[in-house]
Amino acid sequence: VERLIRESGGDDSQLLLAHNKIGQYYSDRHKWGKAAQYYAQAKNSEMLVECFYALEDFVALGRLMDALPDGSPLLTNIGDKFQ
Fold first, then answer.
1. What is the pLDDT along the chain (83 residues), one digit of tens a residue?
2. For 1-83, where are the alpha helices, taking DSSP H only?
């Protein structure tokens, strides 16, 4: 899918949508590591939080927390997961 989008001259929004859809495919099947790879490419922080939590990868969750801007609503979500 990714290669087809690139070869056909697709734009970044199409590629981000494809990455999100592929990430959703893997997360629906509880393949959190693969899902996280695609959500990272899609820059989907909300779903990355869920993947890292499911993987119990608190180091990656902490790095994501540090990368989020101050005041992001995801910070509260991550804080709840660390409790």
1. 777 677 777 678 888 999 999 999 999 999 999 999 999 999 999 999 999 999 999 999 999 999 999 999 999 999 998 88
2. 2-7, 12-28, 32-41, 45-55, 58-67, 73-82
Output the CA–CA distances (angstroms, integers) from residue 39 to 20, 47, 65, 83, in the order listed: 6, 7, 15, 24
pTM of the model: 0.86
